[in-house]
Amino acid sequence: MAGDVYSLKEAAGRVGVAPITLKRWLLEGKVEEVPRNRHGWRLFREQDIERISSFARALPAPVRRDVPAERLTVASLFSGIGGFDLGFQRAGFAVTFQCELNRFCSDILSKHWPDAPRAKDIKEVSGAAIPLSDVWVGGFPCQDVSLARMGKRDGLRGRQSSLFYEFARLVGENRPRVLVIENVPGLLSSHQGRDFGIVLSTLAELGYAVGWRTLNSKNFGVPQSRQRVYVVGCHRDPRGPSAILFEPERSQRDAAPSTTNGKTSLSPFKTIVGHPRKTGPVTQAIAYCLYACSARHTGTDWSRTYVCYPKDGRVRRLTPRECEGVMGFPKNWTVPHPGFHDIEDIDSLRYHALGNAVTPPVAQWLAERIKSYLASHESVSTSCAAVAGA
Ligand SMILES: C[S@@+](CC[C@H](N)C(=O)[O-])C[C@H]1O[C@@H](n2cnc3c(N)ncnc32)[C@H](O)[C@@H]1O
After folding, report:
1. pTM of the entire structure?
2. Which domain holds residue 47?
């Protein structure tokens, strides 16, 4: 813009907020309106930007932090059996909070994180109950957006997937610096993309720059083709999501090209798992995607992946323990406490929870990248804290 007059986008950048936030402040009368040009575009002068910046600086900063300041922290919502939590923990994060409605999943969480504060129904959680955490992670239920539903998809209006709005409500109350949402790729196409548009615009309204990437677990050392969408939001940092989600070569920043580490790998599909001797089992190198085995969710479910014994002509499904391996969890991760009573259903509960989970190696990759991002943006975060209550 010519001279000392700025557009809404430029002014927002100078203040350090998303344009949508600045627009909201103007519409809500939180900051005084500015003159418009003959086309109706707002024109911001230096003194307007100074006035709006003072408003932003005066907003309350978050103060609570319940673990040592030197430790990065993650709070998880829709925690399931803790796929995100395990990946982030492996990257050095402390898990500050979990929220999970399902009794079996909560039991598994309490086995692995006995000391983490844990809530049940997200609808009953208030932001004040969640310790201040650097990162929030959550894969809201996907049933209503999943293509595996094989019928009309209710999308974000559905009973389960509308829980996204509860997540957004809590994000609005606490404004963590970084958030990660995981979901099935069907989220991208639900209601011709309008649902995904709502996810993005809701987060933008809350002051988050948002990016997304589809990642397949098979590229992270997991023996399963499992594609999921990962949405990353960074509070008031438009460069954050791409720095986290995309390697420097992809975003064309100044970086040396990647090199292979050690021997060049074959295609994962060419690797032979098991030893097909006369009676030995034959398995695929890469399993099909595991789904939660609920008839409502999908008619095909995880059982498409089989182990066969050619000599005997026998075929069997994967055991829950094998499913843990196929999801990248440690063995017996989903064995509940001895006191858990639905003994007859344990296998089904394990299959279902595993089919819903995030694969920890992908979560760990994201966590490592977020860690680097947070380390390189330490000074930015300090200045952002002054406007984090907007
Ligand atoms: C897609 S799964 C997330 C799995 C998780 N990321 C993992 O790695 O296991 C969604 C989870 O949300 C939980 N959930 C559903 N409704 C909920 C509610 N009202 N409050 C809290 N959790 C809920 C489900 O029980 C399920 O475990």
Report:
1. 0.74
2. 5-58
